[in-house]
Amino acid sequence: MLTGANVVLPTGTVKNGTVAIDGTRIAGAPLADAAVLDVSGHWLVPGFVDLHNHGGGGASFSGTAEQILTAIRTHRAHGTTTLVASTVTDEMDLLVRQAGLLSELAEQGDIAGIHFEGPFISPCRKGAHSEALLRHPEPAEVRKLIDAARGQARMLTLAAELPGGIDSVRLLAEHGVIAAIGHTDATYEQTVDAIEAGATVATHLFNAMPALGHRTPGPVAALLEDERVTVELINDGTHLHPAALELAFHHAGADRVAFITDAMDAAGIGDGRYMLGPLEVEVSEGVARLVEGGSIAGSTLTLDRAFKRAVTVDRLPVEHAVKALSANPARLLGLSDRVGSLEPGKDADLVLLDADFDVRGVMRHGEWVVAPQLG
Ligand SMILES: [Zn+2]
């Protein structure tokens, strides 16, 4: 039993609250003769859910099983207890092989599924994706990745304005895979069509898409205005101006925003040379850029930093930050019955934060991943 904390629940924050844990789950009532840990002066929030993450700890989700587990452990230590593994553009046969490996880890419960980012994206907005390997989102090609993931494909980012794009959005929706609009050069109208066809996520809104213009409102306006769409935001202080983040929150509302890391290998480590799929990346002062061309190449963010920034720099209410980091992505993934809030019966996945919102403990499935450090 954890007592004395500010416990953030869907209904609001309970001061001097208690969270009881029974095995791997959150218990409904305080347990008789349970061990009690007084965590007064701390916050208890649900474990973070990352929809979009390429790696960390020097390893990537495009690597071997061992490297994938290193990346998972790195992000868990920063409070991410549920994570969707993202691939980057590569040869189709390599992506098919990687999907097989990732699907095994998803079946074991290590990850919550696979997000394919590329190769079905726009060469105009390729970001840190290899241009030579981009292709049109022909449904038959998209289908190859869905099949290779053996039921573990959760999301696929595509530029729906490319040939085959709208049909692929429909195909994804039919298979229960989230169609995410991103790395796109679409107009406002083309984006509206994609949403009508079933797209429900904006991949890192603002980044890798045309800017909001008063005569060319583009994807940003279409994605922000539609209540069916959840917008991903990379809240690292580099990818977005704080005013852009505020604008997104204001228009989408706290229930339609998901903070993601879009992290690459350097997350949880630091500056140096890394690979992002087939491309070389230089990380300097925490900002990852392609060696060739200088595009921003993912982030070195962990979700605990996104949380701290949200409540200290962006001045969001803690309850809104919890929605963006846990409840909303959990709902989007269809996992709300298990994760995303500190309610009885759900997995005992939680993050213990001190008064400065730094991580002091992480629990997953009732076990401490980071043992509580109090005082
Ligand atoms: Zn990404």
Automatic annotation (TrEMBL):
<dbReference type="InterPro" id="IPR032466">
    <property type="entry name" value="Metal_Hydrolase"/>
</dbReference>
<comment type="similarity">
    <text>Belongs to the metallo-dependent hydrolases superfamily. NagA family.</text>
</comment>
<dbReference type="InterPro" id="IPR006680">
    <property type="entry name" value="Amidohydro-rel"/>
</dbReference>
<dbReference type="GO" id="GO:0046872">
    <property type="term" value="F:metal ion binding"/>
</dbReference>
<feature type="binding site">
    <location>
        <position position="215"/>
    </location>
    <ligand>
        <name>substrate</name>
    </ligand>
</feature>
<keyword id="KW-0378">Hydrolase</keyword>
<feature type="binding site">
    <location>
        <position position="117"/>
    </location>
    <ligand>
        <name>Zn(2+)</name>
    </ligand>
</feature>
<dbReference type="InterPro" id="IPR003764">
    <property type="entry name" value="GlcNAc_6-P_deAcase"/>
</dbReference>
<feature type="binding site">
    <location>
        <position position="183"/>
    </location>
    <ligand>
        <name>Zn(2+)</name>
    </ligand>
</feature>
<feature type="binding site">
    <location>
        <begin position="207"/>
        <end position="208"/>
    </location>
    <ligand>
        <name>substrate</name>
    </ligand>
</feature>
<keyword id="KW-0479">Metal-binding</keyword>
<protein>
    <recommendedName>
        <fullName>N-acetylglucosamine-6-phosphate deacetylase</fullName>
        <ecNumber>3.5.1.25</ecNumber>
    </recommendedName>
</protein>
<comment type="pathway">
    <text>Amino-sugar metabolism; N-acetylneuraminate degradation; D-fructose 6-phosphate from N-acetylneuraminate: step 4/5.</text>
</comment>
<dbReference type="GO" id="GO:0006046">
    <property type="term" value="P:N-acetylglucosamine catabolic process"/>
</dbReference>
<keyword id="KW-0119">Carbohydrate metabolism</keyword>
<dbReference type="InterPro" id="IPR011059">
    <property type="entry name" value="Metal-dep_hydrolase_composite"/>
</dbReference>
<feature type="domain" description="Amidohydrolase-related">
    <location>
        <begin position="44"/>
        <end position="369"/>
    </location>
</feature>
<feature type="binding site">
    <location>
        <begin position="296"/>
        <end position="298"/>
    </location>
    <ligand>
        <name>substrate</name>
    </ligand>
</feature>
<dbReference type="Pfam" id="PF01979">
    <property type="entry name" value="Amidohydro_1"/>
</dbReference>
<feature type="binding site">
    <location>
        <position position="239"/>
    </location>
    <ligand>
        <name>substrate</name>
    </ligand>
</feature>
<dbReference type="GO" id="GO:0008448">
    <property type="term" value="F:N-acetylglucosamine-6-phosphate deacetylase activity"/>
</dbReference>
<feature type="binding site">
    <location>
        <position position="204"/>
    </location>
    <ligand>
        <name>Zn(2+)</name>
    </ligand>
</feature>
<feature type="active site" description="Proton donor/acceptor">
    <location>
        <position position="262"/>
    </location>
</feature>
<feature type="binding site">
    <location>
        <position position="128"/>
    </location>
    <ligand>
        <name>substrate</name>
    </ligand>
</feature>
